[in-house]
Structure formats: C-alpha cells, structure tokens
Amino acid sequence: MHTQAHLIIGTAAFAKPNQWKINLAAIIGSLVPDLSLYLLSVYYLFFAGVSPGIVFGQMYYSDQWQNIFSVDNSFFVWGIIVGAGFYFKNDVVKIFGLAGCLHLALDLPLHNDDGREHFWPLSDWIYSSPISYWDPDHYGNIFGPLEALLCIILCVILFFRFRSIKARAGIILLGFLETFFIFMSVLHPI
C-alpha cells in the first residue's frame, strides 16, 4: 500500500479532534514502517548518486536493506510497543503502536515479490501475496484504484471530522498524492 494511503487509513482509524498528541502518534505510527525506505532511498539517490534502477531494482532487495526493513516491519516489535502502551497506560504509545500494526496488517496481503519479514526475529519468512498494491501483473491495476477510492472516502470523512485549516489542508494534500500516484500508475504501468 502506498505510504500516503497508510497515513490516511491510520489517521481515520485513530485520530480524534482536539487530541494533537494522539493524532501525531497515529500519523507517525502509520509512517514509521516505511520511513527507513525513504531515508535510504533519499540518501542513495540524492547524496550518493546511485541510479533509481540500482536503488529500487537491487539495493531494495539486498540483505542490508531487508535487515533494516525486518525490524521496522516486525509485528513482534510493534506488538511490544502496543503492549508497553497498555502496560504503562500511555495512550500516545498505544496509538503509535496500533497505527504501526495497522500499517503492517495492510501491507502483508499486498506485497508480491517485495514483502518484508513481518515476523522477525521469530522467523525470516516472507509472505508472497498473489496481490500487489502496485504491480499490474498481480492485480495492482485493480487494487490501486480500489485503494484510491477507499482513501477518497476516508479523506471526506476526515475532512468533516477535523475543522482546522491545517488539518484539512493536510487531508487534501494526502488525498491528492494518493489519487495522483494511483492515476499515474494506471496510465503508465511499470
């Protein structure tokens, strides 16, 4: 699932008006499982000068990158965070962890050959789903528009849930990014 979709869904699931700490926890928790990919990609593309074909065709699949992804995409790690939130009665930590778990739960069935070790450190098994959120060879051309439709519906709900200009601007931006990338991938499949 696209990162912006995770942000929209995590926000819709956990964010509440006038609770900025909870809302920030929902947003950050929805982002963190993908954050290492962005940091690594930005570094190698823009600072190390590595071509996109090498970054996304080789480095993404390397043991070095996959070892990093296995930590920030582990249900075990995120489960500990959720457990700590409940144990310490800390709603911010709990929502952060739950948003991360939701991200993983949505990713697990939507990655074909680019999945993660979601059960690390207990197992290095990677589920290879018959469905991909982006690859037209694995129904990405069907799932992508469905993802966008869900996100548009959730953005409308969020738009009415939150009244501030900043929140609404963020919702509109995320909705635009989601539909733009889906639209472009349908027009120009990889």
Description:
It is a single chain. The protein has one domain. Helices cover 69% and strands 0% of the residues. It has helices at residues 3-14, 20-47, 52-57, 63-72, 75-87, 91-107, 140-161, 165-187. Helix 1 runs antiparallel to helix 2, helix 1 crosses helix 6 and helix 1 packs parallel to helix 7. The protein starts with a helix and ends with a helix. The chain has 190 residues and is mostly helical. The mean pLDDT is 94. It is globular and about 45 Å long.
Q: Keywords for this structure?
A:
190 residues, mainly alpha, 8 helices
Number of strands: 0
Sheet with the most strands? none
Tell me the number of helical segments per DSSP (H or I, 4 or more residues long): 8
Average residue-wise pLDDT: 94
State the secondary-structure class: mainly alpha
The H/E string reads HHHHHHHH
Q: How much helix is in the residues?
A: 55-70%
β-strand percent reads under 5%
Shape: globular
Q: How many structural domains in the coordinates? A: 1
* Gyration radius, rounded: 17 Å
Low-confidence parts lasting 5 or more residues at pLDDT below 50? none
Q: What is the terminal-to-terminal distance? A: 16 Å
Brief rundown of the structure:
By secondary structure, this protein is mostly helical. It has helices at residues 3-14, 20-47, 52-57, 63-72, 75-87, 91-107, 140-161, 165-187. The chain contains eight helices and no strands.
SSE topology:
Layout: H1 3-14, H2 20-47, H3 52-57, H4 63-72, H5 75-87, H6 91-107, H7 140-161, H8 165-187
Helix pairs in contact: 1-2, 1-6, 1-7, 1-8, 2-4, 2-6, 5-6, 7-8
